[in-house]
Write a structure and sequence with these properties.
14% helix; 2 helices; alpha+beta; two-stranded antiparallel sheet; 3-stranded antiparallel beta sheet
Length: 102
């Protein structure tokens, strides 16, 4: 979920820094910043990893992302949209990569 301004986000968040979303409570951290992570050559999602299960990849035409079928889908239409470059969380996406994601 993205908010255009902190004030808008704060309006949705309770005093205990939690947001109720579809029956689930999400903890909000307003202080989180973009960080850099080291490449993980053994990450089983990294596109460059030689041991990635390529038979699960259904589309990889994007410069920054690929789509794969999960080994254990949550529902029939479940798929994974995965960045090709290793990141720890979505806040590490560069602005141009984030634009492609949206």
């Amino acid at each position: 979920m993205r908010f255009e301004a902190a004030a808008v986000a704060e309006a949705f968040v309770a005093k205990d820094q939690q947001l109720a979303l579809q029956g689930r409570l999400l903890r909000i951290n307003f202080k989180m910043k973009r960080v850099k992570t080291q490449e993980d050559k053994d990450c089983w999602f990294c596109f460059e990893n030689a041991s990635i299960e390529r038979d699960l990849i259904v589309w990889s035409e994007s410069e920054h992302f690929y789509i794969a079928m999960p080994k254990g889908p949550v529902c029939d239409d479940h798929f994974l949209l995965v960045p090709k470059r290793h990141i720890a969380h979505s806040l590490e996406l560069a602005d141009e990569v984030e634009e492609e994601f949206e």
